[in-house]
Design a protein that fits this description.
about 550 residues; 5 strands; three-stranded antiparallel beta sheet; mainly alpha
Length: about 550
């Protein structure tokens, strides 16, 4: 839905679009918005949450989930309040994207840094989604037709630890493997592969990337329903595991024993930040939501719902399969005596798609044709839902920011929609690529764009606003003067505040809160990055174990 005309309100740094020069109309409902936010927060990361609990125990992840959930919600509110206060965008009546908001408050230098941060964060999230979706799609193709095939752009000889000699498919240009049976080695490991799964995923995604965000809402709602069905199946399967019958008490340690090579706390922060790295998509959603949709209600409902989903699936998956779940930092797992030839799984999906592990953990499902079919179907439907619900949204947001900053439609489409798929090709079948990519990009890009920048914007907003203006707005809100006209409410919606004036926070208190959050977030990101580097430096990577 693109109109033919638009108006722009200029200030010293930016222009606010008040028509529909690009993007969709203000039509996204609260329910559709919640589906969009939940899809963005959960995305492809849900199946690997159990790995984090297996590697770290339950204490540190639980505390971190709660803190990051609260901080991301506050961060979103602060960003939106700064967005609302830009001249020409009162009540979000105009259209302004992420980087232009930064440019308004901080000028061109910070604008350039935000461009790097935004593209780094969203392109990284897209690449991660591509890697996981393509791998699971290849597994689905293998389950249906026995093998998945592809073009091997870097044919070279590869032999695995458990494979006697060179794997023939590693040297062929046109190569086919059973992606579900790589116990003796994965011939695609460390190769650049354009697989059938890759081609199917890209054909699904590229056309949707041409749409506007509001056009995407039907897909978001459908993908949300589909992923819930998949999660329910995984939860039931986890509860069916033999581990639930062989233990009489809670079996996840509070903190794992650091003397084991599969124990670490280094992967917790990066993994959780990755899942809550949604703030960069908020301005595009706000630009196209219905005016009466309350931002704070939508965001807080979505973030806490996602927290419940992470605990629900992460803890149940860990209790069921923790011995064979590879940690996001160590890439190791405890294993079981007598099954040393079975590699660690990168997520609970690896358990469901491995015949050996399925038989070991879920013999009832393994031996039941109907139950096995339902589990496998949920595993193979999930990447389609993840592709439809996450990759196009991140691509559209990148495209919107490019267009607003003067790039033409063709370049914006190529950079936002096509580029992530091209850069993903050499990363698809690299050992530990998914977990390491999640950890580092989250700590570097997501912490900056989704937390530090919004807190800085809020600090600058409090500094720039006069005490008289804030006092007038506060008194008007408390007395109800700003919301008493129903016609005005339907046109512009309710007044958005990150911290309601009814709480009584002074401008100084808000400024101090914002700057403290900046310092804390920066320190945590640096500490997390250093810890992740130290942990990954001790890891050994086996090309033949990719996808196990």
């Amino acid at each position: 839905m693109v109109a033919s005309s638009s108006n722009q309100i200029q200030d010293d740094n930016i222009s606010v679009t008040t028509g529909d020069a690009f993007g969709g109309g203000k039509t996204i409902s609260m329910m559709a918005g919640i589906c969009l936010l939940v899809n963005n927060i959960t995305g492809p990361g849900v199946p690997s949450i159990a790995n984090m609990f297996a590697e770290s125990g339950w204490v540190f992840p639980t505390i971190t989930f709660i803190i990051v959930c609260v901080l991301s919600s506050i961060s979103t509110g602060m960003y939106c309040e700064a967005m609302r206060m830009i001249p020409g965008n009162e009540h979000f009546r105009g259209r302004i994207e992420y980087t232009s908001i930064v440019k308004h408050y901080f000028g061109s230098r910070m604008f350039k840094a935000s461009q790097i941060g935004l593209n780094g964060a969203l392109q990284s999230l897209n690449i991660i989604s591509v890697i996981q979706s393509v791998q699971v799609m290849d597994q689905a193709i293998s389950a249906i037709w026995g093998k998945s095939c592809g073009f091997n752009l870097t044919p070279f000889s590869l032999s695995g630890e458990t494979y006697n000699g060179t794997m023939p498919e590693s040297t062929h240009f046109w190569t086919c493997i059973d992606a579900n049976d790589t116990g003796d080695g994965n011939a695609w490991g460390c190769h650049c592969i354009i697989s059938v799964g890759f081609i199917i995923c890209i054909l699904i995604t590229i056309p949707i990337g041409r749409w506007n965000l509001d056009d995407n809402m039907v897909i978001q709602v459908g993908a949300f329903i589909l992923t819930i069905l998949c999660w329910v199946v995984w939860f039931i399967a986890s509860c069916w595991s033999e581990n639930f019958h062989s233990y009489n008490d809670w079996q996840i340690p509070a903190v794992t024993d650091s003397s084991y090579d599969y124990s670490s706390q280094a992967g917790v922060l990066g993994t959780i930040l990755f899942n809550f790295g949604f703030v960069t998509t908020i301005p595009s959603w706000v630009n196209e939501k219905q005016p009466q949709v309350n931002i704070n209600n939508s965001v807080w409902i979505s973030t806490w719902l996602c927290n419940l989903i992470f605990f629900w699936l992460g803890i149940s998956g860990c209790m069921a399969f923790q011995q064979f779940l590879a940690g996001p930092a160590t890439n190791n797992c405890a294993g079981v005596d007598g099954m040393s030839d079975v590699s660690c799984g990168q997520s609970i999906l690896s358990i469901f798609t491995s015949p050996d592990l399925l038989k070991f953990y879920l013999p009832g499902i393994h031996n039941s044709g109907a139950a096995n079919f339902i589990v496998q179907l949920s595993v193979y439907l999930f990447p389609i839902a993840a592709v439809l619900s996450s990759i196009p949204v991140f691509s559209i947001v990148v495209k919107y920011n490019c267009i607003e900053n003067g790039w033409n439609q063709s370049f914006s489409f190529l950079w936002g929609v096509v580029f992530p798929w091209v850069i993903s090709i050499p990363l698809l079948y690299q050992p530990g690529a998914l977990n390491q990519f999640i950890s580092y990009t989250s700590l570097i890009f997501v912490s900056f764009t989704d937390f530090i920048v919004p807190f800085l914007l809020y600090f600058r907003l409090q500094r720039d606003n006069t005490e008289e203006t804030i006092q007038e707005d506060n008194e008007a809100l408390i007395s109800g003067d700003l919301e008493e006209d129903p016609e005005d409410y339907l046109t512009y919606g309710n007044i958005h505040w990150a911290l309601s004036p009814k709480l009584g926070f002074s401008r100084k208190a808000k400024s101090i809160t914002a700057i403290v959050l900046v310092v804390v977030m920066a320190a945590v990101a640096v500490a997390g990055t250093v810890t992740s580097i130290q942990t990954s430096a001790t890891n050994t990577w086996d090309c033949a174990n990719v996808g196990n």
